[in-house]
Specification:
The complex is a heterodimer.
Chain A (H helix, E strand, L loop, with lengths): L1 H6 L3 H18 L23 H12 L1 H13 L13
Chain B lengths: L1 H23 L5 H32 L1 H10 L4 H14 L9 H18 L22 E2 L2 E2 L5 H18 L15 H27 L2 H32 L1
Antiparallel strand pairs in B: 1-2
The chains are: A mainly alpha, B mainly alpha.
């Protein structure tokens, strides 16, 4: 709790912490970049470029924390088999 | 607040659907209700999954171009992904089914887990107005008690998951190469990939065993239905190809 308070002191730190968390997700859990990537030998797990986690980081950098997260979530919902626009930058 | 949203948005609807199905089914069988529920979920996702299986087929036709991309951007996975997806976009293919089918299933699995974790019983105050409570619940399915753990059903979930992953996975690129021609990196990736094929089913078997047999039954049924769909669609495709060829 104390640690997070220290981190949350300014808006910039929230951003920094969030991006670090997403990077950690990419290394550990992500099916495209993390340990599970070997399940998808040829194309990777992702339907779109950049991947949703990458997109989330980019949009947090571009629009700030709240709008960035919101856009990131909308992006995740766009990943479905009827999606035709595969190259999709924030 | 979150727990009340969770309760009224996921737990309660799922509980009601289950009780409704149990009430409708002869013998008030809970196992039967779970299987019917799986059918409903799969049916809702049928077009989504079918689309992905079709896409796999169209991807195979682009194989030469894909190979070229892989060779020109050998060391840069990012660029490789970008160019591959550009190619798919040009040909109007969506390569994978994406997150949506998963996102639909996760609440069902977690909800089922909770419903059985709390012990499935008839609690009239949880039921919606149009759901009438059946007189009793038959927790026995074949020889399994669905409230308890079941090693057999967990194993069935794991094995069916393994088969499902194996038949739906695209073939590896370097299948044709002989041992000596592969680089160390390719060898590593290959062995990891083979290991992962086993890790996922083992994980799912473990979770299925830890939760109630009901969850394992959902998982196994769902996998078996996926396998059947994959085989049926593949057969239809082959027939179509024969006609056009």
């Amino acid at each position: 709790m104390l640690i997070s308070l220290v981190f949350m002191r300014s808006k910039k730190n929230v951003k920094y912490l969030l991006i670090k968390l997403i990077r950690a997700y990419q290394i550990i859990f992500s099916p495209d970049k993390g340990l599970l990537r070997y399940l998808y030998p040829t194309v990777g797990a992702c339907n779109m470029y950049p991947t949703c986690s990458e997109y989330m980081i980019l949009s947090i950098q571009k629009y700030g924390v709240l709008r960035g997260i919101f856009r990131g979530i909308r992006r995740i919902l766009r990943c479905h088999p009827y999606q035709k626009k595969l190259i999709d930058l924030p | 607040m979150i727990s009340s949203i969770w309760h009224s948005a996921i737990y309660q609807p799922l509980y009601n659907i289950l009780i409704l199905l149990v009430g409708v089914l002869p013998g008030h069988s809970v196992g039967g209700a779970i299987i019917v529920l799986t059918f409903i979920v799969k049916l809702a996702m049928y077009p989504l999954a079918g689309k992905a299986i079709d896409a796999q087929h169209s991807m195979r036709k682009l194989e030469p171009e894909l190979k070229k991309i892989r060779e020109t951007h050998k060391d840069d996975k990012q660029k490789q992904a970008k160019h591959t997806l550009e190619l798919y976009q040009k040909h109007q293919i969506t390569p994978l089914s994406g997150c949506l089918p998963l996102l639909i299933q996760i609440p069902v699995i977690i909800g089922l887990y909770w419903v059985f974790f709390k012990g499935l019983a008839i609690t009239p105050e949880l039921l919606y107005g149009f759901v009438t409570a059946p007189g009793y619940l038959d927790m026995q399915f074949l020889m399994f008690d669905l409230g308890q753990k079941s090693l057999f059903l967990a194993l069935l979930a794991a094995v069916s998951q393994y088969i499902q992953v194996t038949i739906s996975m695209p073939k590896t690129i370097d299948d044709g190469k002989k041992n000596g021609e592969r680089t160390l990196q390719e060898d590593f990736a290959r062995s990891m990939q083979i290991q992962m094929r086993y890790v996922l089913p083992v994980m799912i078997g473990f979770i299925a065993y830890q939760s109630a047999a009901a969850v394992a039954l959902y998982w196994a049924t769902s996998n078996i239905l996926s396998i059947v769909q994959e085989i049926l669609m593949r057969r239809r495709r082959e027939k179509k190809d024969l006609v056009t060829a």
